[in-house]
Write a structure and sequence with these properties.
- This protein has a single domain (28-126), classed as Sandwich (Immunoglobulin-like).
- By secondary structure, it is mainly β.
- The protein has one helix at residues 8-25, and strands spanning 29-30, 33-39, 55-64, 67-75, 83-90, 94-95, 99-109, 121-126.
- The longest helix is centred in the first third of the chain and has 18 residues, at 8-25.
- It is elongated and about 45 Å long.
Length: 128
Amino acid sequence: MKTKLTNPRTLLAVLFLAFVTLFVSVQHKKRIIVTFDYDFGLHPACSLTVTKNCIKQFNVYEIAADGRIKLFSLPVPGGAAGIVKGITGTSPRIVLPAGEHIVAVTAESAEGFESNPGACTTQIQVKR
């Protein structure tokens, strides 16, 4: 059985349904920008000559009731030594539902160990 969709009301209903489906399925992606300070006097940054007991990168997490979710990583700034202020990283576009979120930054060593995520946290508010 073939049905013609030439009735303007039928076409309008189909287009409306398609629009609503598209609207519901499209999720808004956001970028998160983190800025923090780090003291490389405790553990130096990894380099070509320092490859052990050093900081190779920073990881950014969302802290949730059921654990943490890694959002992105950022490299250690080149030539980092002592206290470095204003280390900044930007996430790729990610889906975050509207509401409050806790974001944490950890330092990861060359051996894969990470600092306490509770040591560097902030609360953000995501709007629609």
